[in-house]
Design a protein that fits this description.
Layout: E1 5-12, H1 19-35, E2 40-42, H2 55-59, H3 66-78, E3 81-83, E4 87-91, E5 94-102, E6 108-113, E7 119-122, E8 126-129, E9 141-144, E10 149-152, H4 161-169, E11 172-178, H5 185-201, E12 204-208, E13 225-227, E14 233-236, E15 242-249, H6 250-259
Parallel strand pairs: 1-2, 2-3, 10-11, 11-12
Antiparallel strand pairs: 1-15, 3-5, 4-5, 5-6, 7-8, 9-10, 12-13, 13-14
2-oxoglutaric acid binds at residues 45, 118, 155-156, 159, 179-182, 185, 189.
Length: 279
């Protein structure tokens, strides 16, 4: 029988412009998280490079490559499931914002390319057009652990509730979103979106941000968080580098779903959700 509890570590890494420093630091914090008892360790969006359209071409790598080789080794050395945040990936002349997942044997078990690119323009506040240099992914990705099935997406993807609903339909009890919200949308929407996705789908939602660097061209909000199926924040970082640990209690997912059985109360006769993804 699958274990009903496991420990997750959200690694809020301080990311700099120095890739090898980022990789070394990430590797050290993954070991620290494993030493702290985590079964599953997760890194932030763009953990190996600064976040910004001008940086993506400069830092992009093939998979496998330097960054994912480090992740594979760290997962194996520390015997953890490792969600490698995301990195700018180059493939076939295109760039993607890509998350990779490794099992405790160091094998790549999932690869997700951000599906919804972060293209926004909030007048006087923030304009960001990820599509200037990136291409979107075209598939949805879940992976299996001995604990539960996990759904994976990246940052802006959290704004699209259909994606989370599809992962829930596929049997996920935990959704993970490496992400880097900013000083405008962070305070307004970061926690609200996570609590919304968790409550709508009655599952755990974890987000993993880089630590805030006030000197960076894109200032991340921080506040990596875990929300439970009741919609409560159970663990939350500040904005500096830190590891946030929490137990994920899968029996609580079942309890909430049986107390308020929304998933059996849908009106398929008046609306429907369609999963068109091939993977
Ligand atoms: O949705 C937002 O407000 C922020 C999204 C973002 O920063 C990203 O997709 O990387």
């Amino acid at each position: 029988m699958a274990a009903s509890k496991f420990k997750i570590a959200l690694v809020q890494l301080f990311v700099t412009a120095n890739k090898s420093e980022n990789l070394a630091r990430a590797s050290k914090l993954i070991s620290q998280a494993a030493g702290g008892g985590a079964n599953l360790v997760a890194l932030p969006e763009c953990f190996n490079s600064p976040y910004g359209t001008k940086y993506f071409p400069e830092y992009a790598e093939k998979i496998p490559g330097e960054s994912t080789n480090m992740l594979a080794k760290a997962a194996k050395d520390n015997k953890v499931f490792l969600v490698g945040g995301s990195i700018p990936e180059e493939d076939g002349g295109k760039l993607y914002n890509t998350s990779t997942v490794f099992n405790p044997e160091g094998e790549l078990i999932a690869k997700f390319r951000k599906v919804h690119l972060f293209d926004i323009d909030v007048p006087g506040k923030i304009r960001f057009q990820e599509s200037e240099t990136l291409s979107p992914g075209s598939g949805l990705v879940t992976f299996d652990t001995p604990y539960c099935k996990v759904g994976l997406a990246i940052c802006y993807d959290i704004r699209f509730p259909e994606l989370a609903q599809i992962y829930t339909r596929r049997g996920c009890k935990l959704l993970l979103y490496p992400g880097a919200f900013n000083m405008t949308t962070g305070p307004a929407h970061w926690e609200l979106l996570q609590r919304g996705r968790a409550l709508d789908n009655q599952l755990y939602v974890g987000t993993i941000s880089p630590a805030r660097d006030e000197k960076a061209s894109y200032v991340a909000w921080g506040h990596s968080t875990l929300v439970n199926p009741w919609g409560e924040v159970v663990a939350k970082a500040g904005h500096e580098e830190e590891i946030v640990y929490s137990d994920v209690d899968l029996s609580y997912v079942d309890e909430v779903r049986s107390s308020i059985p929304t998933s059996n109360q849908r009106r398929a006769d008046i609306y429907k959700l369609q999963d068109m993804s091939q993977n």
